[in-house]
Known about the structure:
The structure holds two protein chains of two kinds. Helix content of chain A is 30%, strand content 29%. Chain A is of the alpha+beta class. By secondary structure, chain B is α+β, with helices and mostly antiparallel strands. In chain B, helix 1 (17-37) runs antiparallel to helix 2 and helix 19 (578-592) packs antiparallel against helix 21.
Amino acid sequence: MIGSLLGRYPRLANWLYGFTPPERDTVVLVHRRVYILPARLGWIYGATVGILLVGSINYALALGFALTFLLAGMGLAGMVHTARNLAHLAVSVGRAEPVFAGESAQFRLYLDARTAFDRPSILARHVASGAQLVVDVPAGSPAEVVLAVPAARRGWLALGRVMLETRFPLGLFRAWSYVEPQARCLVYPRPERVALPPHSAAPASGGLRSPSPGYDDFAGLRSYQLSDSPRHVAWKAVARVDGMLTKQFAGEAAAELWLAWEALPAALDPESRLSRMAGWVLAAERSGAHYGLRLPGLEIAPARGDAQRAACLQALALYEPS
Amino acid sequence: MNPAAHPLAPEIRPVSTRDLAWLIGSLAIVIAPHALRAPWWLTLLTLCLYGWRFHAGLSRSPLPSRWLVLGVTVVALLGVWIEYRTLFGRQPGIILLMLFSGLKLLETRSHRDAAAAAFLGYFLIITNFLYTQSIPTAAAMGVALFALTATLVGFSAPQRAPRANLRTAGLLLAHAAPAALVLFLLFPRVHGPLWGLPQDAYAGMTGLSDTMSPGALSQLALSDALAFRAEFDGEPPPQAQRYWRGPVLWDFDGRTWRIGTRYLSAFSAPPGGSASYRYDVVLEPHNRHWLFALETAASLPERTRMSFDGQLLANAPVRSRIRYQLTSVIAPEAGPDEERGNLQRALRLPAGFNPRAVELARQWRSETASDAEVLARALAFLRAGRYAYTLEPPLLGADAVDEFLFTTKAGFCEHFASAFTFLMRAAGIPARVVTGYQGGELNPVDSIITVRQSDAHAWTEVFLAPRGWVRVDPTAASVPGRIESGLARSVPEGELAPLMRTRLEWLRGVRYQWDALAHKWNVWVLDYSPERQRDLMGLIGMRGADWRMLAATLFSVLGLMTLALLAWSLQRLARPDPVQRAWRQFCSKLAARGVERAAHEGPRDFASRAARALPAARPAILRIGALYIGLRYGARARTAGIKQLRRLVRGLRLA
Lengths: 322, 655
């Protein structure tokens, strides 16, 4: 009930959780942000201590009292230790590599103990998707958590709220905290597995500007450039020659492929178009052709290689149909 | 979100072999003292259950089915029933708990079950204290508590090194100790049980009984158990004067002496006396009303009364160790007049028993003029009789007194007291048997007199007309060594328990030290009673504190302690490690000069960028960057490097 209330009024949630998302840079879980309640095991423990107390009173057992009170004190100490296991933990985020819709975005969180003691058994759970992982954070260096968040839709996927929880050391209490670090992952449209559009000389209609007579024909080697696809690196040559060389193929310079929005049937809805175009980008890249992308109000000049592929897919991912 | 899939929820975390080993190991420590008390085959059954579960864990074989566990449970219940003929009561209940710990293990799959078994272990610890709360038990159970706690910590951190988990458990216990101490001192204590206890709750307490038949005391004298300890203000009385008076036995049926009917009388301090002593007694529980006093009690402790024959009686049976303060006098001037009925009761003898003894007594009576002379004749008779003092007296028939006096001539103090009292009564002198303890061992370490069951003794009191009741010890008359140097030197050595043999002097020294320690433990730890709590509250200025004030104080102090603990942990947290602190200082120094570190910028990139931007400080900046990287990510020895880093950062001048 409270959860739905907070969901409806995000500002109430922000006030309650003590921060306004998203949080830039490293988030430190100050103790104001760490919540703690007894876990179910804690209640059972409390009941056990109660029974021991009654037994000690009934049989007037001095050592029974001592044991009971030690256990009670340990409950209290356990509460403080559980809160301490989470408090002042520093959370920072790493880069999330772009994924296609339908895959899982791999968000990297770094949990840094920043103290002389380690913090075992910390659960990081992505609230919206339920993706979760338990890590032990050592004293010296940060621990990495990879949350695989399903990416359903293209565009920017914000990480959203992440819950950090621990029950260490006794499992009697459950301490938790919410963070919402500024992290996002680019989600490309789900690529449709399609063949390339029919070649056409007319640039406006998409397709190859000129037929490609054997773009697979090996033409020679040139020195490697950063934008070259690793697929075209002459790996055998690397072993012989200093530095990397890239294989060049005859005809590919001549082949210029335009992947155009308007080449698709008008009846197709925008998302399906984007999916098909993403499929084209992948196919074009595989084919080794130089390809350009044309969307309403946006044009990417023909090129090839991973940078071109990424630029095209990003344009498709972020395209806002009017 | 599916709550069942919560990876920290104990119910879905399976127990590993390591968890099992810890759990079983700690439970084994907990049940070790019980295992020594329980019938061997029930102990074996428990250990088999432990072993079965561990084997299943090792070989990853499935656990026994619910029906099989149920079957084993029925076998365990049957076993206990066969052994004790009941399932209730203290001993069978505890044995059942011990067996259940094994059965619980057999169905332990998840951490929740394992934690429940650990909690059962905590419960089993306390059952040990029902038998003994001695220092060794406390130490063993302390180890068990530590092990169980480390086990619980291990459940929460299954990947962590066991040593780290042990350290955490130690830290937890250390943090719990102050709170436990406060609770122990301030938790409102009440007297007595909250409800009826099982029949056998007070079984196994040794001590004098309200009857005395031949062989009773010599059995008791074999026991090395503590009866009580006494601490005198000033010099204690000499050994021969230390007659600790207990139950007075009036009625004799030819074999057994009994207390018989008893009524209370108003207490009045006896006049005069040769010596007066003030002392404290810490009496071990014996489940009887009577308390022990040196000779004639001249004061009445709280919550006690005095019976007509001078016994101190507590209002309730002594079921826990109690402490009382007394004043006693030795040989008061003149006893009060005795009622006629009591004197007649002190002359009554069963008809037809011991004709030779009756004959002898009548002969003394006819040959002498006064009671005192009869007494002297009787003592002379015993002294001349060459009686043997032994812990293994021969069995006696119906005329026990005759056989002892004229045939076997060997016995323990009950034989002497019984025969002598019989002779006195037969001669017409009112006499009664008094049981109690004689002597006790003075511990040179803390000057406390330790009285053990082996000091149990019986003697006679006779009524001599002007003087009243007079103590006569027939054992002392015939075996003087018993009273002067104690039991251990007056009976054949082979009859004694090993520790009572006196050859090993160093062993005696160790034993004295240990006794002194055990006494302090009893007084300061185990006997923290409502009265002592009241005294303590008086000491800290809360005179007459009731439970409400105690509870209020308790919660205030506990709250403050939790806050202190919290402050401690936060202070530890808020202080970043020195490397990080120096680096932050470095960054802020550079930021002041307009070189701000971007969030994505690593230390190496940042340092080289800053060095380019501020070429004047280039060497220092690069040096700091390299040092920081080495300290933060390297595996080098740290302290020297940290010092150097701090010095460099402090000395960094960015003009």
